[in-house]
Structures are given as structure tokens and as C-alpha cells.
Amino acid sequence: MIFLASGNPHKIEELHQLLEPLQIQVRSTRDLEDAAEVEEDQPDLAGNALKKARYWFDQTGLPSLADDTGLEVDVLNGAPGVYSARYAGENVTYAENVEKLLREMVGEIDRSARFRTVIAFVTDEGEYLFEGVCEGIITNERKGEKGFGYDPVFQPDDYSETFAELSSKEKNRISHRGRALDKFVSRIINSTTHQ
Predict the structure, then answer these.
(1) What pLDDT does residue 191 have?
(2) Separation between Cα atoms, residue 15 and residue 11, nearest integer Å
């Protein structure tokens, strides 16, 4: 069993789909009453992911998986980055974050960006980090109804659709989180086959 250190239903669903082939049972903070919110106050994605995974490993005793994701826009010097979830302020909606990003990008020719995910996995055996990156551009307007967060304005390289227009299967195959999880899954498979 693995404990997912997340209460975000979209993220949990995405992780469930990606871990399904391993037939690993998954619990998350949504399965707990009054689960504490771990403050993401570290200066980088790896720090936040590790802080959450360590906390939940200590609380549950289960191997714990946590991630932190940031959207890095080149013309904004890597912003929103580690502040992606609260770019427009505390307790804002996905739409408000996207709105702020589009406002700041008005008139910009260079629209290159990337999603970066760092996954931390904490177990009795140690702590492990896995990183996934997906390069793309920020579109001029929202497109698509699927996904969450910045998905409607992020168009991955070699695609004419945004993440919000792709099927969840296709998005998971190429996404930053999917790539980080692939590395995690490979490690799990390798460690179980070499026992």
C-alpha cells in the first residue's frame, strides 16, 4: 500500500490511473478525517514534496508519495514556479491563476514554458526523488474543458491541443507528472524484481 500525500481530487485521480497497472492499493489524505494541510513553504518543488512525504510517512507509517508541481514561464523568469497554486493569491481558483498568467503574457512573443513535477517517495529504506518535465507554450486564450489548473493554456510541444483538450490517457502519457511517475514506477518494478 502507498499513501498519497494529497487531497486534490484531480491529482489523486491522475495518480490512481498511473499506478493502476501496478495493482498497488492507494490511500490518500481524502481517506482521513481532519487530515492536516502540510504548508508548502520550501523554496523549491523538491523541498515541498519531501516535506509532505516525510510528514505523512511519520503519521501513517506507510510508504508515502508526494509531489509538487510548478509551471515555469521563460519570459516571466520562471514564474509562477513554486507559487503556481497561489499565483493570484491565497485560496484562489484555478481560473483566477490562469487569468493572472494570461494578463501578464499579453503582447509577449516568447511564450515558451514548462511544467515541472518533483515526486518524493519516503519509505523505511530511504527517501527518493523523481522529476518529470514537459516543455510547451502558453496559449493566448483558454482552450478545452478537461484537466485542471493551467491545463487550458498549456500546449505541449509537438501538439496543437492544450492539456485540457487531450484525453486523460494521452495527457498522462506525456505530462510532467506522468514522466515523474514513470520513473517512480520503474524503480518500484526494479526493486521488486531484484528482491
Answers:
(1) 66
(2) 6
What grid cell was written down for 84?
503556481
Instruction: Give me the residues of the chain with pLDDT under 70, please.
Output: 191-195
- Phi, psi of 113, deg, nearest 5: -160, 170
Task: Retrieve residue 114's grid coordinates.
Answer: 514548462
What is the CATH code for 2-193?
3.90.950.10
pLDDT at 17: 73
% of the chain surpassing 90 pLDDT? 64
Report the half-sphere exposure of 51 (CA within 13 A, side-chain side): 14
Q: Which of 15, 20, 53 is nearest to 175 (CA)?
A: 15
pLDDT of residue 173: 86
82 touches 45 (CB < 8 A): yes
Specify the pairing of strand 26-28 against strand 2-4: parallel
Q: Say how far apart CA 153 and CA 137 lie, in whole Å.
A: 8
User: For 154, phi and psi rounded to 5 degrees?
Assistant: -110, 120
Grid cell, residue 2, equals 502507498
What is d(CA 170, CA 151) in angstroms, rounded to the nearest whole number?
A: 13
Q: pTM of whole model > 0.85?
A: yes
Residues catalogued as catalytic: 68
Q: Are 156 and 111 in contact (CB under 8 A)?
A: no
Which has the closest alpha carbon to 66: 8, 24, 124, 17? 8
